[in-house]
Design brief:
The chain is an alpha+beta fold and about 110 residues long. About 30% of the residues lie in helices and about 25% in strands. Strands 1-2-3-4-6-5 form a six-stranded antiparallel β-sheet. β2 and β3 form a beta hairpin. α2 packs antiparallel against α4.
């Protein structure tokens, strides 16, 4: 089952204060980016945040889940937290702060 566009749009809207938020389709699901850094996945209409130490501290009691089979565990963010825009943007902000910028793509010769 793939995620609905309206779910992704809502999460992007709620976390907009974290920075420039975008989404890209990936294998029928979505990757969420903050200022060019991939910070989360939306799979089966569930939000999976990349695990970071700052994110763990921010969340407190963490629930982990697998966005897809053979994935490493991500922080599974309960839908009840999606409605709190300040909380969600804060989580995205602290997560993005610990992640590296993506490597530049190599140009083809």
């Amino acid at each position: 089952m793939s995620s609905q566009q309206k779910t992704v749009d809502y999460i992007l809207e709620q976390s907009a204060d974290a920075g420039t938020m975008t989404a890209k389709k990936m294998f029928g699901e979505y990757g969420l980016y903050c200022d060019g850094k991939i910070v989360a996945l939306v799979c089966d209409d569930q939000l999976f945040m990349k695990p970071t130490a700052a994110g763990r501290d921010y969340i407190g009691v963490v629930t982990e889940g697998l966005p897809f089979s053979k994935a490493t565990p991500y922080f599974l963010i309960d839908g009840g937290h999606w409605d709190d825009a300040d909380w969600l943007a804060g989580l995205v902000r602290v997560t993005a702060s610990e992640l590296p910028l993506p490597k530049p793509k190599k140009t083809k010769k």
